[in-house]
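Dock fe (ii) ion; give full complex structure.
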Amino acid sequence: MTQPESSASRLSASYWGMNTTLAATTKWCNMEISKKEMKILLKSQQGELDAVLMYNALAKVAKIKKDKETFRQLAREEGHHASVFHKLTQRELTPKHTKEILLPILYKIFPRWILYPAIAQGEYAAVKTYAPVAEKFPEGMFRFEKRIER
Ligand SMILES: [Fe+2]
């Protein structure tokens, strides 16, 4: 029996990439971040950290090897995203375990063709949240490469 088309690679690694250069660092160190913007950056940083745990947990339960690899890759990327936000906020946050616990349960309940697009939706929503703030920072720092294949 062949596997259905819906694999985690649809949630393809690096739906967007962030590139931090030293030049960018010096630039945004001098940049004013408003209270409202800081709130968004912190929320985003938290989301990225939580996603690291979530994707690693999904990698553990995924039944297909390719999906496992994709989830691991996504976890690494989320870690990188978190580090970008950390550079901006200069705040240490603790990852929350909610999604790390919930998603492996959902993985067992729902078929992948339902679950994966739902996860992708969550990612799009996250990007939407910080996109207006990201605009302030040097181009290339938040490079939007939405590569979640449908
Ligand atoms: Fe992310």
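Observed: Residues 48, 51, 78, 81 surround fe (ii) ion (CB under 6 Å).
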